[in-house]
Amino acid sequence: MTDKELLVLAARAAGIPLSFDLNRIDGLTNDYWNPLDDDGDAFRLAVKLTITINNDCISDADYKSTRRAIVLSAAEIGKLL
Fold first, then answer.
1. 3-state SS string for 24-54
2. Whole domain around residue 71: which residue ranges?
3. What is the DSSP code (8-state) at residue 63?
4. What is the value of pTM for the model shown?
5. pLDDT averages per 10-residue partition of the chain, 81 residues
6. How far apart are CA 79 and CA 21, in angstroms?
7. What is the pLDDT of residue 41?
């Protein structure tokens, strides 16, 4: 599954309407939304979907993998909708 497909499913799970402009994915406020790259977007997605994150597993080197895990979890939820 591509990153774009993951983001679409994650947005569906969180009820975030998206629009596409070239390679950008814009959220409702037309701000660039990408929880794969942005810690804040990933954290808000996790909170909205009540995805629990084990803090013992997070270090500076693992932020990218933590964001991806959140998006993957959200995408699985989005598949069910």
1. EEECCCCCECCCCCCHHHHHHHHHHCCCCCC
2. 3-80
3. H
4. 0.83
5. 92 86 52 87 95 77 89 97 93
6. 23
7. 93
Single-letter amino acid, residue 19: S
**So what's the pLDDT on residue 30?**
47
Determine the pLDDT at residue 60: 66
Q: What is the total count of domains within the chain?
A: 1
- Give me 33's structure tokens: 């939304």
H or E stretch at 21:
strand 19-21
Q: How far apart are CA 57 and CA 20, in angstroms?
A: 34
25: which 2 tokens? 């994915």
Nearest one of 44, 43, 40, 16 to 28, comparing CA atoms: 16
How many Cα atoms occupy the beta-carbon half-sphere of 62 within 13 Å? 10
* Token pair 């660039």 in the structure block, residue: 32
